Amino acid sequence: MTTLDKAPTEAPAQGAPAAPGPVPEPQSPDPERKVKLRGVTREDVFTILGSFTGSLGLDWVLYERVLPFSGALGFLLCWYLLFLAGYFLLGRLQWGALMVRERLVSVVAWSAGLLVVGLIADQIGYVASRGYDAAQHANFFTESMEKTASLSPITSGGALHAVVGSLEQLGLATLFAVPLGIAAAVFMSEIGGRMARPVRTLVEAMTALPSIVAGLFILGIVILTFGFDKSGFAASLALTVMMMPIVTRAAEVVIRLVPGTLREASYALGGSQWRTVWNVVLPTARRGLVTAVVLGMARAVGETSPVLLTAGFTSRMNANPFEGQQISLPLYIWSYVKLPVDEMVARAFAAALTLMAVVLILFVTARMLGGRAAGELSGRQKRKLARAASPAHSARPAEPAPAHVVPAAASVRTAVATGEH
Q: Spans of biased composition, class Pro residues (predicted)?
């Protein structure tokens, strides 16, 4: 007899004690099932493999048997298009239209990323293979070309003077461009006013400025007008002209992404505008500002024409950027790669490989110096909060902040209340 077949029991009379009976056990809720939003399933793998092999076979038949086509580039392009078409058709047999479109876009994005990685690996491999003959000798990193001629063996001469020149010129350009660029970004995003639009227009125009024009500007103003000689300092000024608009535009975008509630919290705690910008806005956007600096350095480190016009050329070591001509790695590469001597071409490619290594080291260092994430307290700020919460400073110790407090709000309170600047 099921539950529905049982006769209803009579309700106990009012005031009568309830008849003892077994207490029903509470039913445990069904365990939650975790939904996997991302990942690769067996169907995805088989669909991709089927589309890959099927499109390859169809492409081969079209190129070799049916159509009068030839060429490796056209073969690969046709193969990719057939792969996408095959993936769409096979996916349409399994999934809905919306899911097929979503996975097709994912395949396009992944393939584009793999293509970019493959191109970068190919370029690095080609440069490394061409410059290995010179880079395998230690003298390339410890000597200059002062006592080396064009027909000298590969065991003589190096690019030490070019490495030193590139680092000094890029360092000076960063020292000049970063404060000016961030200050301009703060002015356009935080101060505003009538001059914000002309400044933004000028920055956007300078972004598209050809590098040769920046070199000609410094050549005409600094060298020809004021009578300074060609030097690493003049080259750094030309690189500054190239870096500053990049840093300004990227920094402005990052600063505008800082939530307005952080600024309002700082003003509510009594912070002034400059203290809000210095202690709240800029620390919150620290990592984005580091990215802006990295983009500016990436634009300047590989420039050749401004350096050629302003720094001159020399084969000896010159560690003084303010006196005498100074060479950089891009100019070293441009000068030696066009010579009809295998040893000089190998030195040029080894210098290109060295430039890649220098850029990688600079970018990793910049990322490490980027500091903490937005809202994360520094050691100094944590010590100040600990001292403020100690019984020696207050009769009633401050309760520790709950775990769910937003770190960014904590940083605003710390920056404004403690007066750190």
A: 19-29
- Report the distance separating Cα 65 and Cα 58, nearest Å: 10
- CA 381 to CA 418: how far, in whole Å? 8
CB of 309 closer than 8 Å to CB of 216? yes
Q: What is the pLDDT of residues 248-282, one digit of tens each?
A: 999 999 999 999 899 999 989 888 888 999 999 99
Pair 239, 173: CB distance under 8 Å: yes
Q: Which CATH class is domain 160-368?
A: mainly alpha
Q: How far apart are CA 82 and CA 87, in angstroms?
A: 8
Q: For the chain, which residues make up each domain, given as ranges?
A: 42-134, 160-368
Measured at the alpha carbon of residue 97, what is the angle toward residues 95 and 102, in degrees to the nearest 5? 85
Query: Residue 277's CB: how many other CB atoms inside 10 A?
Result: 20
> What value does the CA radius of gyration of the chain take, rounded to a whole number of Å?
33
Task: Kindly report which listed range (39-48, 143-152, 273-282, 311-320) carries the lowest average pLDDT score.
Answer: 39-48
Q: Summarize the confidence of residues 16-37 as an average pLDDT.
A: 54
Q: How many CB atoms lie within 10 A of CB 416?
A: 21
* Interatomic CA distance for residues 272 and 169, integer angstroms: 37
Burial (CB < 10 A; 0-12, 13-18, 19+), residue 269, is middle
User: Using one digit for the tens of pLDDT, what is the confidence trace for 202-233?
Assistant: 999 888 888 899 999 999 999 999 988 999 99
